[in-house]
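Late entry, written up from scratch paper. The run itself happened at the end of the previous shift, but nothing got recorded in the book at the time, so transcribing now.
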Amino acid sequence: MSDKSYLVAGLGNIGAEYAATRHNIGFMVLDAWAQASNISFETVRYGDMATVSVKGRKFHLLKPSTYMNLSGNAIRYWMQELDIPMENLIVICDDINLPFGTVRMRMGGSDGGHNGLRNIEDLLETRQYARIRVGVGHDFSEGDQINFVLGPFTLNELPSVPGITRRVAEGVRTWALAGAQKAMTELNTKAETVENTTNQ
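Output as recorded:
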């Protein structure tokens, strides 16, 4: 496989009951990208996949069907199947430690308590892969974290979601076309900046 092929894994849980939940923001980014590119996902082993080409780069958009906590199974399989090098993998997930709308891209690091990232790290045996964490806020009481991440965005948050997903997809393309540093400069913004961008 060419070094111009990339695996873009958006994390989430399959099933209609999870479709619009905070935990599924990774799926939402890839769905928005596919819709904007007029392409469709097809069911493959361990998930759904769509492929889009941008300026000579081929992006394989993967939504694992393994459920969040076993996301590494799908990612490891498709990296091997498509012969994707580690430096061409990027993972998109939610993060309750970031305010809603804040986006953070890193080229490695800890799982930050995210079970999906932990499983990926365990199966790939490395922390050194690109990831984009999308802040979903942390407005929940002690012990209510699961209900919060598996709950829907609020009516106040929903209008900003399309702009956030669009911005993240643009960041992934920048990462592949212009490099990680430029992508991180564009993406690592405060929530207010993201929200202002979506309202323009």
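The longest strand covers residues 47-54.
(Scratch paper discarded after transcription.)
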